Amino acid sequence: MSTVPRVPSAVPGQPPAFHTVLAHAPAIQQNFAALYADFWMDPALSQRDRELARIRNARVTACGFCRQVRFSLAREEGLDEATLDLVTDAYAESSLSDREKRILAWTDAVIGDPARADPALGETLRRDLGEAGLAALTLGVGLFLGLAKVLITLGLEPEQMPVTVLPTPGSAAYRAPAAR
Amino acid sequence: MVQYSAVAQPVIPAPLAAHLEPLPHLRAGFERFLAACFDPDAVPAATLERCRRLVAALHGADPAACGPAFAGLPPAEAEALARGECPPGLPPADALALEIAGCIPWRHHDLPDAPVLAYRDACGERAAVTLLAALAMFDALCRMTLAASRLEGA
Fold first, then answer.
1. Interface check B118 vs A, CB under 8 A
2. Residue B90 class from Cβ within 10 Å (0-12 exposed, 13-18 middle, 19+ buried)?
3. From B41, which residue of chain A is nearest by alpha-carbon distance?
4. Which of A136, B12, B56, B73 is 20 to 30 A from residue B63's alpha carbon, by CA?
């Protein structure tokens, strides 16, 4: 693990951070920002479901930034820290709903050993979430994992960081100049 | 070595593309994002191809699960990569890229500073950022495709 940036900021006067380092490759930065905003605003999956999967990935992948971030819309919809505290390796025995446990199990399948993903779990999730919801979950987990690894390997994890609520990408608060 | 036109072919492997079909706008956005990560103007096509094959091998997967082929490789080199090994005699930057790639699927926190800093110094900051994004997305794409393929039999 490195908490020393391995690539400097591409933006003069700004410190190395995910968006300022990614700016060395503007097409990656711009296409990711557009996709991530569209993903979070798509109605196929609830904000709560997405955030549960994102936090599960953040904890398993051990991304020091991702696991301290909370997105605002899920927070506003009532997803609190007590619930997120249940997203541990023991979530199967927790008070989360069976549907939420299946969402976490699919998240684990993608970020763990996907060649052993249980088709029966996928079929049940199809009924839980619909085809579009399951597709959104798979896409989200892939993005969460991929971008966490980019951040980690660039050395952009903070030494310390409190739990921080950020505007959900694509939301009105995210687009407002004061929020950026 | 045969050079392929990477941007002219679909980037998302077929089983995953079918899985994402209910979300055509997100699938199209994902396609554009991946194409930006797999940019042969920033990282040579042969380097991308070597890394794609190594990441697939570390997953025990067919290279097609990690995205399209970017370049042809000599058979001996392809065979070494399929065994999860770094072929001998590569350009130094490619050996560094493969050293980094070897950590991405299962040991991303074990990646030391040295190969990343050496690759950045040799190839530049744009190439370093693009390489790390490409490697992470080869890994993510492979996982998503393997999971989606498991659903096909459900």
1. no
2. middle
3. A25
4. A136
| A135, A136, A153 ranked by CB distance to B108: nearest | A153
> Which chain A residues have a beta carbon less than 8 Å from that of B146?
114-115, 117
In a domain, A155, yes or no: yes
pLDDT tens digit at each of 154 positions of chain B: 545 544 467 899 999 999 999 999 999 999 999 999 999 999 999 999 999 999 999 999 999 998 899 999 999 999 999 999 999 999 999 999 999 999 999 999 999 999 999 999 999 999 999 999 999 999 999 999 999 999 876 4
Would A12 be classed as within a structural domain? no
> Residue A128: which CATH number?
1.20.1290.10
Cβ separation A25–B33 shorter than 8 A: no
B17 CB within 8 Å of a chain A CB: no
* Phi/psi at B63 (5° precision): -55, -30
| CB-CB neighbors (< 8 A) of A170 in chain B | none
- Helix, strand, coil proportions of chain A in percent (round to 5)? 60, 5, 35
Q: Is B135 on the interface with A (CB under 8 A)?
A: yes
Conformation bin of residue B126: beta by default, left when phi > 0, alpha when psi is -120 to 50: alpha
pLDDT of residue A179: 45
SS3 B153: coil
- On chain A, the residues whose CB falls within 8 A of the CB of B42 are 25
Report the domain count for chain A.
1
Domain boundaries, chain B: 6-152
Taking only the tens place, the pLDDT of each residue in A156-178 is 999 899 999 999 999 999 988 65
SS3 category, A71: strand
Q: Is residue A71 part of a domain?
A: yes
Q: Which domain holds residue A152?
A: 18-179
| Encoded amino acid at B66, one letter | C
Q: Return the pLDDT at B8.
A: 61
- Interface confidence, given as ipTM, is 0.95
pLDDT of residue A151: 97
Best residue in B31, B38, B144 for a mutation probing chain A (most A CBs within 10 Å): B144
Nearest CA in chain A to B42: A25
